[in-house]
Amino acid sequence: MIDFHNHVLPNLDDGSKSMQQTLSMLKTASEQGITDIICTVHYQHPKMGEKEINFEIVNQCIENVQNEMQGININLHPGAEVFYLPNLTEIKSDLITVFGHGKYMLIEFLPYQLPINYDEELFKLSLSGTTPIIAHPERYKPIQDNIDIVVKLINSGCLIQIDAGSLIGHFGKKCKNTSEILLKRNMVHFIGSDAHNDLKRNFCLKDAMLLCENIMGRKSEKLVKENPLKLIKGEKILPFEIQESNAKNLFQKILNRMI
Ligand SMILES: [Fe+2]
What we know:
It is a single chain. The protein is an alpha/beta fold. It contains twelve helices and nine strands. The site of fe (ii) ion has 4 residues, from loops.
């Protein structure tokens, strides 16, 4: 499996605090059946302050970790989780902000409010040739309250990544329910551990995939194999056809009976 979304690299963001912790996390990842990790270091997140992140810094860190990974057989790939600011088309020239030779960007938002005109900025990014991937929408309050926001995002060209921990229940009932609805309606394209440490927020793809398989069947494999592989290579990822909501289906059935 390929893990797309984590903070396993040491001392670059609020993730792993040391090389020792990173190695412990990688050991867990390996036990979970993860063969490739796409490292997504926080980029321009307000909580990171002035800390500089760029392609050279992340690659140097990956090289340092790889030199210490005795007996752990995992490939590490550089990347970032970009905090949303209305500057996405400007920062994509910084290679660390994009995947697959500029084809994809992982973007996160604050949990309680979506910024004004964010959809226009995402559309501008799409038009520039970079597909926005929305990080863990199931953790955003406006989306928990209105899942149609995700339908609109997908229809305007975005892809969706959910956190494995949301599905397992690490972030509470609302997150779990929302992630299940997104999966049931074929609105998820990647699952990532969003691992931050070797304690409560570690790699957990294996456990999440068991739950995911119950919901989506064998199609779930695409979320941790085919799609992230295409992302690394910069190949086109086709979204699934979105399922209508149960309420809408029921309304349609009643309407069909009436006419
Ligand atoms: Fe993250």
